[in-house]
Amino acid sequence: MDELVTEVRAFNRFYTRVIGVLGARMHDTPYSLTEARVLFELRAHEEMETGELRRLLDLDAGYLSRMLARFESGGLVTRARSAADARRQVLRLSPCGHEVWRTLDAASASDVRNLLTPLAGEDRRRLTSSMAAIRRVLGDGDGGGPCVIRPPRPGDLGWIVHRHGVVYAEEYGWDETFEAMTARIVADYVQHHDPKREACWIAEVDGEPAGSIMCVREDDRTARLRVLLVEPSARGMGLGGRLVEECLAFARRAGYARIVLMTVDALAAARRIYERAGFTLDEQHDERSYGADVTVQSWSRDL
Prior knowledge:
Blueprint: H1 2-18, H2 33-45, E1 48-49, H3 50-57, H4 61-73, E2 77-81, E3 89-93, H5 95-116, H6 121-137, E4 147-150, H7 156-172, H8 176-191, E5 199-205, E6 208-217, E7 222-230, H9 239-253, E8 258-264, H10 268-276, E9 280-289, E10 292-302
Parallel strand pairs: 7-8
Antiparallel strand pairs: 1-3, 2-3, 4-5, 5-6, 6-7, 8-10, 9-10
Helix pairs in contact: 2-5, 7-8
């Protein structure tokens, strides 16, 4: 944990310097970062009660009151009694406040454009997708970008093997034999792939792989679901269910009558996805696999 704390603090120091928020004033204007953020929120919401603004930005009541008094005396905001509750004040940007906001917004956009311009297209995509991932992981409800289910691209099959090895080692302590098994599944898929009866999908969030699944041939009547994975940072977005539904729809179109899968009882989230998709448990047994004691389960459903 101490190493993680050090990494996060180092990033914070680096990024605050890069975006230029360490100075007392923003973009050669008289306004601080906090003052600019208050103007931004008032512009975004059109009108806000003072208490709502304070809670949104987690500002000290006295500090915010003094700031708003300066804004009001400078002609940037207007205050009025709330129609719903006369004890509360409603804030709005004045025409002058809108002009100041436009100046700050244009300067901020210009700075970010200058930051992105020297970067190659791939680096820009990596940067913005990583930023979106940070927002999601830290709980920003608006941080989730576009989610798509697509066929694999070059490098995606290697990503499946890599992320299975990493995620299951971190979450369940499984050893490298699980990664080796995943590699064999992927290699068999490539070597014996029949596009009419087998398919693979990648779930992509903010331009980055965030999940995977395969539908492969078990026999002429039976398909097998394999390598279902959802990245920890993308859980809670419904990707697992979407991937399974994609797999089931393909299996039906391919003419299979039944689909089976293998999992272990420790994977509770995956089991709930399978149950919601109509799978039932056929058999389970205990064994030693992947360096751990696991209960292996076989599930199936008719198509």
